[in-house]
Amino acid sequence: MSESKAKELIKKRVSVKAKITQFSSYLNVVRSSAQLSELQITELTVRLSKIENFYSIYDTLQSDLEMIADDPDELYAEREQFESQYYNVTAAAQLLVEKHRASKPIQPEASSLDARTSVTNAQNYVRLPKIDLPHFCGDYHKWLEFRDTFNSLIHSNKDIDNINKFHYLRSSLQGSAALVIKNLDFTGDNYTGAWELLYERYNNNRLLINNHVQDLFNLPVIHRESSRALRELIDTTNKNLRALSTLNQKTEHWDILIIHMMSPNWITSQKRMGRTQKYTFHRTNTT
């Protein structure tokens, strides 16, 4: 790839980074408001959906630059810095939207005759905030992500009562996972039992470890040099190593083993392979 092409990629990357910086500045202004209006929240939601599209653009540009660089270490540091800024600002925006929605109770219509009953009901019935939870269909590979996300956002949230937790749980389950709790009546008293049934069915450490180790042995083979395929290989490896670390496996000492497992899976120059491996394990051991 020519030097002019590299300059073009860098120029486009600068434009994407500028969009993130502009959104961060806008978010700081919104957060400084004492109380947000519905118009502000709507605008923030629209802007957030737009900014989320820029990550894939940046990833493509950055991957192309990394593949042609003689010394990509500086580019890897650049990627780390961008991803840190991107995830921080988008997470802050999502949290702001969710907090606003959670604080908006439904105001039921009531006559003077049943005002007392209506007030009592209004205290117990609030508009459920939209929380983007991962769907779980019974695939053991996705159990840890679902378990930790649901536990953090819903199960351990003392501000959500059991009937609403049950609602979120049922909405998140599909396929064989949904069948596990299908016969339980939809009541607040049954929520704890439903969660325990899922936990007992899928929180099998031995099976989870075996699945993720098997995935490492079945890494995809790259038959031709491709930045996207190489990125997918690195992401798949890191994803399984993080999962195994969560399952209390000492993956920080697996470098030589992982190098041996990954080496046959791509066909590139040894020099570039060594750099890629260095980046892979740096990312894994600092996660």
TrEMBL record:
Alphabetical list of Pfam families matching this protein: DUF1759
Origin superkingdom: Eukaryota
Protein name per the record: Uncharacterized protein
InterPro entries: DUF1759
